[in-house]
Amino acid sequence: MNLEILTPDKKVYEGEVIAVTVPGTSGSFQILRDHAPIISTLEDGPVIVKNSNNEEIFNIKGGVVEVLDNKIIVLAEAIVA
What is the reported pLDDT for 81? Predict the structure, then answer.
């Protein structure tokens, strides 16, 4: 799967991933290969990215996620330290 994490001012991440966990408005959920198409709002919290080498965590300040045809786009309001 391909993941992009974008904020209004820059592209934070782009690459192939195995799994992504996002902080959905109704609770966090994980996206795996061949996930059903979905658009969901996101709360403040961690986006956990797992690829073949490691795991990265990006703390976002709200946003939206779209999943379609093994492409995931996270539009975050901001990345917080």
Answer: 79
How far, in Å, CA of 33 to CA of 81, rounded? 29
CB atoms within 10 A of CB 30: 11
CA separation (Å) from 65 to 16, 29, 62? 16, 11, 10
**Residue 38 corresponds to which tokens in the numbers above?**
């979905």
Q: What is the DSSP letter of 52?
A: S
Assigned token pair, 28: 């966090």
Q: Contact at 8 Å (CB) between 79 and 60?
A: yes
Per-residue confidence (pLDDT) for residue 11, from 0 to 100:
97
Tally of CB atoms within 10 A around 2: 12
Mean pLDDT by runs of 10 across the 81 residues of the chain is 97 97 96 97 98 95 98 97 79
R_g of the chain computed on alpha carbons:
11
